[in-house]
């Protein structure tokens, strides 16, 4: 199907004004991007002039469509983004600071749609595998990155003024008040795995300390009850301990 140009056909029909089979087409793209050839086709790698156009359109739809629609077919674009970010070329495209795609995607991290949230965190985690070479591009979007990574693992408590004052406003303001818990353990694990991949890098570790990240993880760990999530906290924790010992 990929060889038959199905991705281009699906994208062309999807963005026709009177398209009545949006869900079907998005689900087709989800399935096709499980194949390497499907990812290459969607990224338009072989067409220098058009490269990234399809992905840009899908990200725009993912970010534009309203949470108020209970059954939004573009929620499933999150699964497409997870699929393409499993490949280096896809990660590089999403992390390209000129395109600004990951920044747009991260704005959906607190969506009311569980499916959309899963897409955001799965994509972010995959992108963090590029931290060794793309850390600068990740940290360029810190104001979106750290809230997405830290709020799900910050626990339930209301943080003190002193703790909040050591965080950027986008974190401190939220953590100073009561908030909805992040119930999905899979998202918490993915957030912690992403943090680990960033803090393995020395500059990433410094950035993490600068937003009072270790304090947030300390409180989050104290509130955590899921064994798999606790294990993910501990993995980051051992890295933080080792990092602080090394820097002494």
TrEMBL record:
Q: Which Pfam families match?
A: DUF383, DUF384
Task: Say which domain of life the source belongs to.
Answer: Eukaryota
> What residue stretches are annotated with the Protein HGH1 N-terminal domain?
15-188
Segments spanning the bilayer are none
Cleavable signal peptide: none
Span of domain Protein HGH1 C-terminal: 194-245
Q: Which family does it belong to?
A: Belongs to the HGH1 family.
Q: Which protein, by its recorded name, is this?
A: Protein HGH1 homolog
């Amino acid at each position: 199907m990929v060889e038959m140009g199905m991705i281009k056909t699906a994208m062309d029909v999807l963005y026709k004004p009177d398209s009545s089979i949006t869900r079907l087409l998005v689900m087709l793209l989800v399935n096709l991007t499980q194949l390497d050839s499907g990812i290459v086709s969607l990224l338009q790698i072989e067409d220098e002039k058009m490269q990234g156009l399809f992905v840009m359109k899908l990200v725009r739809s993912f970010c534009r469509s309203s949470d108020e629609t209970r059954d939004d077919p573009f929620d499933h674009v999150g699964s497409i983004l997870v699929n393409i970010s499993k490949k280096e070329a896809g990660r590089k495209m999403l992390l390209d600071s000129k395109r600004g795609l990951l920044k747009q995607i991260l704005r959906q991290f607190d969506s009311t749609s569980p499916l959309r949230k899963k897409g955001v965190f799965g994509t972010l985690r995959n992108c963090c595998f590029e931290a060794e070479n793309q850390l600068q591009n990740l940290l360029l979007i810190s104001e979106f990155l750290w809230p997405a990574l830290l709020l799900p693992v910050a626990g339930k408590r209301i943080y003190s003024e002193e703790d909040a004052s050591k965080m950027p406003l986008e974190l401190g303001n939220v953590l100073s008040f009561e908030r909805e818990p992040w119930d999905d353990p899979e998202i918490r694990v993915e957030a912690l795995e992403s943090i680990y991949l960033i803090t393995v890098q020395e500059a990433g570790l410094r950035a993490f300390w600068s937003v009072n990240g270790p304090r947030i993880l300390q409180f989050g760990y104290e509130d955590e009850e899921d064994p798999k999530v606790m294990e993910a906290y501990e993995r980051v924790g051992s890295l933080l301990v080792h990092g602080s010992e090394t820097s002494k």
